[in-house]
Amino acid sequence: FCGITRNTNPMWFRIHNGTNTAEEFAKDIETAIMMKFLLPGDILVLDNAPDHVGKENKVLEDWLWERFAIMILWLPTRAP
After folding, report:
1. DSSP state of 76
2. pLDDT tens for residues 5-43?
3. What region, left, alpha or beta, does residue 8 occupy, with left being phi > 0 and alpha being psi -120 to 50 degrees?
4. d(Cα 39, Cα 64) in Å, to the nearest integer?
5. Count of CB atoms within 10 A of residue 60's CB?
6. What long-range pairs does 77-80 form, CB within 8 A, spacing at least 24?
7. Which tops the pLDDT comparison, 3 or 64?
8. CA dist 72 to 42, 44, 45, 55, 56, Å?
9. Do the Cβ atoms of 39 and 10 come closer than 8 Å?
10. pLDDT digits 0-9 by tens, 57-68
11. Helix (H, G, I), strand (E, B) or coil at 14
12. Which among 42, 39, 60 is positioned nearest to 51, based on CA atoms?
């Protein structure tokens, strides 16, 4: 159903010092694509944190879909 098996890892993360920014988040998405963690047909679930939707990331949803066929599923505001 969701493509998660014992051989896959559904989590990708990077730990760094300081606060997250929209630019850092965009770099992380690019890295995940280059590492083939995010693949065509994947669905990326995000909340509406400023890091996800701010600055250059305003076009993130269109860029991911048009260039990589990766869809963003936005969680509702104030979703747990």
Report:
1. P
2. 666 666 777 777 888 787 888 888 898 898 888 889 988
3. beta
4. 10
5. 21
6. 77/48, 79/47
7. 64
8. 9, 5, 6, 17, 16
9. no
10. 778 888 899 999
11. coil
12. 60
Written as one letter, the residue type at 50 is P
Amino acid at 40: P
Rounded distance, CA 27 to CA 20, Å?
Answer: 11
- For residue 21, the one-letter residue type is T
- Asked whether residue 1 carries a pLDDT value surpassing 50, the answer given is no
Q: Over the Cα atoms of the chain, what is R_g? A: 13
- Pairing relation of β-strands 43-46 and 71-74? parallel
Helix (H, G, I), strand (E, B) or coil at 39: coil
| Cα(41)–Cα(63) distance, integer angstroms | 14
Instruction: Answer left, alpha or beta for residue 32, where phi above 0 means left and psi between -120 and 50 means alpha.
Output: alpha
The answer to whether 10 and 37 have CB atoms below 8 angstroms apart is no
